[in-house]
Amino acid sequence: MRAAFYERNGLAREVLQLGEFDPPRPGPGEVRVKLATSGVNPSDVKARSGSTRKIVYPRVIPHSDGAGEIDVVGDGVSPSRLGERVWVWNAQWGRAFGTCAEYVTLPSPQAVRLPANASFEIGACLGIPAMTAYHAIAVSGATPGMTLLVAGGAGAVGHYAVQFAKIAGATVIATVSSPQKAEAARSAGADHVIDYKRESVGDRVMALTGNKGADAIIELDIAANAKLIPQVLRPRGAVVVYGTGATESAVPLFFLLRNAVTLKFIYVYELDAAERAAALAGIERALAAGTLITNIGATFALADIAGAHEAVEQGKALGNVVVKIA
């Protein structure tokens, strides 16, 4: 099989390679997926660069997300799954070989049925972005009447978070960094959009909430945005954090203490069984209804895997980045 891989951390064009390997065989309880697409997430490029964790395997085939068709099943898996269109999650979590290849094997529950109305490109965007977004909204306790501030409302996770927040009945304020991203956030259902490069986020949030502040923040980079919390969050509000751009950062502790603010951290790779089941069910409902909007920002051929990683690192694509395997 053809696959992209790296054997050391470093820049995309210095360490990513293409090679031919024997196709894997599924073990008991596993399936093999013939992949059509592979999703590229920030965590994938950070793992390759070594900025978040150093390589621990002699060789890594990157990426956790992808989509394709089951072509072989292992012992204990029903043959009825053969030919099933699926999307996969956590393919490279705790394992050396992920989805940037023609085939991947993984436990059968990690290959989730993809409805006929959803493309393989969409399927490659669900594992990390959609599951993170769904769980973040669930943890926020979003209900009708609540106001949520979604940081990066046009990003891979934020775009889905806006949609799941609206499904929950919340009012959504989204921050963006350009007119194009503002339009993307509005198309996802954001009630209000703030361009943080051109407007005061604090002033706008307070004006939109009658000086009360948002009930909860869905935060993509707590290191960069912690200082904004006192300007936009109501007393006893919550901040749901799913990402950080730095390992350490200053946090407005006295404001958090005085206002009984709750910081909630989530990590999509380590959801428990109940959390995972809830996220899978929520995504399945949205897909079945045909209402889930996936913003594909750019697609790349497998031969240009370095370009795909660079697009994510440099923020060139408005939306998810997908590699076409075939």
Describe this structure in words.
The chain is globular and about 60 Å long. The relative contact order is 0.15. It has 2 domains: 2-125 and 294-324, Quinone Oxidoreductase, Chain A, domain 1; 128-269, Quinone Oxidoreductase, Chain A, domain 1, CATH 3.90.180.10. Strands 3, 4, 5, 6, 7, 14 and 15 form a 7-stranded mixed beta sheet that branches. Strands 10-9-8-11-12-13 form a 6-stranded parallel beta sheet, with helices on both faces. Strands 1-2 form a two-stranded antiparallel sheet. The chain is built from 12 helices and 15 strands. The protein is an alpha/beta fold. 31% of the residues lie in helices and 26% in strands. The termini are close together. Strand 9, helix 6 and strand 10 form a beta-alpha-beta unit. It has helices at 12-15, 42-49, 120-123, 126-140, 156-167, 179-188, 201-208, 222-225, 229-232, 253-258, 273-289, 305-314; strands at 2-5, 17-20, 30-40, 65-73, 85-88, 103-107, 111-113, 147-150, 171-176, 192-195, 214-219, 233-241, 262-265, 296-301, 320-324. The mean pLDDT is 97. Helix 2 crosses helix 12 (305-314), helix 4 (126-140) packs across helix 5 (156-167) and helix 4 (126-140) crosses helix 11.
Blueprint of the fold:
Blueprint (H helix, E strand, L loop, with lengths): L1 E4 L6 H4 L1 E4 L9 E11 L1 H8 L15 E9 L11 E4 L14 E5 L3 E3 L6 H4 L2 H15 L6 E4 L5 H12 L3 E6 L2 H10 L3 E4 L5 H8 L5 E6 L2 H4 L3 H4 E9 L11 H6 L3 E4 L7 H17 L6 E6 L3 H10 L5 E5 L2
Parallel strand pairs: 8-9, 8-11, 9-10, 11-12, 12-13, 14-15
Antiparallel strand pairs: 1-2, 3-4, 3-6, 3-15, 4-5, 5-7
